[in-house]
Design a protein that fits this description.
One of its GO terms (molecular function) is trehalose-phosphatase activity. The chain contains twelve helices and 14 strands. It is of the alpha/beta class. α2 crosses α9 and α6 packs parallel to α12.
Length: 360
Amino acid sequence: MTKNVAVPEMTQNSSKPMQYPPPRSGNAGASYPIHKRFLARLEVCNHGVTPNAWTDSMKISSPTQAMSVSTLVDEAYIAWTARYPSALDRFEEIIGASKGKQIVMFLDYDGTLSPIVEDPDRAFMSDTMRDAVRDIASYFPTAIVSGRCRDKVYSFVRLAELYYAGSHGMDIKGPVKGPKNTKSKTKAVLFQPASEFLPMINEVFKTLLETTKSTPGAKVENNKFCVSVHFRCVEEKKWISLAEQVRSVLKEYPKLRITQGRKVLEIRPTIKWDKGKALEFLLESIGFANCDHVLPVYIGDDRTDEDAFKFVRKVLRDRGQGIGILVSKFPKDTNASYSLREPTEVMDFLHRLVDWKRNS
């Protein structure tokens, strides 16, 4: 069994400076200690978690109000962007890193391609964003990697030429034919490493639907290989009771664990599989396993995307390649190398990448 509570340590930048990402000074973050509450991480498992730990963690990753403009331009944010510069401002640097390499694009969905909305069933992407993703996929192998059910993500994106990794990478399927402008060997992929958990996940979903009825605003979503309990529309004073409801259900399922994102608690199998493993699997599936001429680029906004950023950084350290871009309007500790503020900037970045490829 896993430990009851895992609190990952803060990321330390102890590696030697590299050409990219830009060198990160150890003093760059010293000027924003007030934001440590935004940088803390807490992965919650089935047992032994105090109510205060639940709510503190929920508040850390799920601020109830958008940060003000003045906060976004204060010294703390400026110091943070010195460590994680804008991918738009450093676009030429990123392009330079891609010289002689095949870019493979990995994109989260919620908060990356679509804005975060109160009703997760209405997290629609704009037509202009869909066009941008379609254009990217015409030049580079492209995958959507989401905590959502794969079918739900596909219903939002509606682009058959992409790879889709739903349920945090536990449900993967790819297109039969790859992008026309790449030389990768694509094939239809269907990989479900947690299939044995399906009956258990369905059972937990039904139980949580009933258990959380007493909490106004709570929404339980079945993402096939994981269950999401959204508390975006729940009053903050009721978060602790909702967390206890979820915890009481999970006591009976030691093979499941709870992780946390922005205003969502996610119940997942305890198997060693995450978005980082999904990236590794997809790279192998499209013909780029242990390849020196590939540049994986991952763009995401939430805590669960850190597993993908860690994988990308590992690729960078081992073979000198790989780029992670965090979408965030406020300082966060991250394994990404660059940042973008919101989905509109993600779209701008995709447009610039397509324009560069067309012109080159």
